Amino acid sequence: MPIPTLNNPTVLTPGLILPLVQSLRRLFRAELSAMVALSALAGYLFAGGQWQVHTFYVTAGAGFLAAGCSALNQWQEQDLDQRMERTKMRPLPAGKLSPTMVLFLASLCISVGSLLLSALPGSQSLLIGLLAVIWYNAIYTPLKRRTPFAAIPGAICGALPPLIGWTAAGGILLTQKSLILAGTLFIWQIPHTWLLLCRYREDLLRSGLPNLFEAIPTSRLLRINNCWLLSLFLCYLLFPLFGYIQSPALVFIFLAGVFIVFYGIFKVQYSISETHFTLRSFHLVNISMALLLTVLILDRLFI
């Protein structure tokens, strides 16, 4: 049975649409792009933005930019993706989309995202969005080939989407409130990335990228990562501490969820195998960020 591709539309029958959808999901890293869109929405509402058409522009614009960055990244790193088990089923190494088509889709998504952000008042949101694209694809992506510590400057990419939303709502860029939100996203990026690298350590060896585990042994890296996790936990506590979550019910839900997540991470750290621990911790760290963003969005509904 032929695999549907955008290069051969004649095979796009109803029964073969699903594989194409799955290819586009991998290309755009739909879950991560949705998280980026959610963080931009949270930043918008966190700054006092109202539910209106601008809410859609912010959310969709950030989501399209993230999807475009992902596609462009896969076009840039197709040689690396071919070598790694985790990425070899992405559309380019799997032969489901051509490099030309991937580059076109990346350009299309970035253009649509930029147009949506340009429809917002002022130019700050658009400029921050374009900075995120440049930082991710022109700085962080090439930097991964040069240093094993690229994740640290690369974490700036995670801090920018909430600032897109923040400035779209008219918020002043550098304030305590905006920096706490952006800083929390920055700190979250480090354990998110390092835990994934630990889980797929053999892939890193196959990729030919600078080896983080040669610079820092795995056991020591996980101890350092615990410091980042503790910093993330303390950042989460700042939101109820400074009254940034106004609903008492949501404060309780948020604190309970955060304590449960971090208890789950540290409790099993030395009781299960390293492979299972890193994968479980990776998912729990992602859940903690999804919890924060969801609470910030829901909190706006109760005001």
Strand-residue fraction?
Answer: under 5%
Architecture in CATH?
Orthogonal Bundle
Class by helix and strand content?
Answer: mainly alpha
Q: How many domains in all?
A: 1
CATH topology: Tetracycline Repressor, domain 2
For the sheet with most strands, the description reads: none
N- and C-termini, Cα separation: 54 Å
List keywords for this structure.
globular, 303 residues, mainly alpha, 0% strand, Tetracycline Repressor, domain 2
Task: Characterize the structure shown.
The chain is globular and about 50 Å long. α2 (30-46) runs parallel beside α14, α3 (53-76) runs parallel beside α6 and α6 (124-143) packs antiparallel against α8 (156-168). The model has no long low-confidence stretch (mean pLDDT 90). The chain is mainly α and 303 residues long. It has helices at 17-28, 30-46, 53-76, 78-81, 99-118, 124-143, 151-154, 156-168, 176-199, 201-207, 212-215, 218-241, 248-267, 274-301. It is built from 14 helices and no strands. The protein has one domain: Orthogonal Bundle (Tetracycline Repressor, domain 2). The N and C termini lie far apart (54 Å).
Detail the topology: elements first, then pairings:
Blueprint: H1 17-28, H2 30-46, H3 53-76, H4 78-81, H5 99-118, H6 124-143, H7 151-154, H8 156-168, H9 176-199, H10 201-207, H11 212-215, H12 218-241, H13 248-267, H14 274-301
Helix pairs in contact: 1-2, 2-3, 2-8, 2-14, 3-5, 3-6, 3-8, 5-6, 6-8, 8-9, 9-10, 9-12, 9-14, 12-13, 13-14
